[in-house]
Amino acid sequence: MFVADKWKDFEVISCSRGEKYERWGDIYLRRPDPQAIWPIDDFEKICKPHAVYSRSSSGGGSWTKLKSMPSTWKIGYNSLGRELTFIIEPTSFKHTGLFPEQAANWDYCGRLIDQAVRAGRKDIRILNLFAYTGGATVAASAHGAAEVVHVDASKGMIARAKENVAASGLSDNYIRFIAEDCQKFVEREIRRGRRYDGIIMDPPAYGRGPSGELWKLEDSIFEFVSRAGLLLSDDPLFFLISCYATEITGEAVAQVAKLALPSGNVECGELGLPVIRHDICLPCGYVTRWSPF
Description:
Blueprint (H helix, E strand, L loop, with lengths): L1 E2 L6 E7 L2 E6 L2 E6 L10 H4 L4 E5 L5 E5 L7 E7 L2 E7 L14 H16 L6 E5 L5 H8 L4 E6 L2 H13 L7 E5 L2 H11 L5 E4 L4 E3 L5 E3 H13 L8 E6 L6 H11 L4 E11 L4 E12 L2
Parallel strand pairs: 1-16, 4-5, 9-10, 9-12, 10-11, 12-15
Antiparallel strand pairs: 2-3, 3-4, 5-6, 7-8, 13-14, 15-17, 16-17
């Protein structure tokens, strides 16, 4: 398991019976988590959140505020000496605009970018697909990538990513934001002959493209990874594939990487967050990491 255990502004305090209790800076939230399948008797006693997310029987859900709290606030993360800042905002989908377990991937990519920069490389280019609010974009830029291309079909997510870049003091860095279907973008980049030294993707398990095209991860991932792999440079650093809420396993995605990408080292594992009141880690999806060495 790749554990994101370097946070100061975030922690999972406890989790039990399908819910988790978290601290985001000075704000405490309680929300569902299907991986918390164990009963812990003290959960209700220690859980005193600012807001609780409740699911609706008709689908979706909503937050109930129990204490005064801002609508948005900021938290920080130190990624191997680089200070990153993110805006947090509870949404109607129970999310907060940030997946803190991804910090394990930010550090992984950041370490490889750092090493390349120290070795004299000044032209590192990173592609972040299905880039959401830009956690990996911010990290890659902060660690010295000369260019980061951030692609997401949601203009709202891109707007928040730009705010996270600004909050992290990176507005002067070269970051391109592209609001487009990721598959179409990859095909266009192939035709243009563009290449990237690192590729990061977090594809959804299910969705539809801008023209109604059906995306189902298990049916589409091999071809998509194969096509995106054509964008790797002659001296690449990494290729990361994160997945959430899917019926296929991390090992299956690792085999896709072995088959679809150039020969190299492939590892996979679950992403996790430590639970501070108990000697356990909460599983939070998984990642496959490819590198040429």
